[in-house]
Design brief:
52% helix
């Protein structure tokens, strides 16, 4: 099952490619990424989220 919408994947690729282009230009010498959570924690969160049902506003 695809957990990511294609539009979201496209946005993420655009962000990644933009940062790679900026780094390739040479104006930035060092770049660091701070992970917000581990891969395992992220996978666990997505698994839990996939089991939740969407409830539109007003339908509680």
């Amino acid at each position: 099952r695809d957990l990511h919408l294609s539009i979201r994947r496209q946005r993420q690729m655009c962000i990644r490619d933009r940062s790679m282009a900026i780094l390739a230009g040479g104006s930035i010498k060092i770049s660091r990424t701070t992970p917000l959570m581990s891969l395992n924690d992220g996978m666990e969160a997505m698994e839990k989220a996939s089991k939740l049902g969407y409830k539109p506003p007003g339908n509680f």
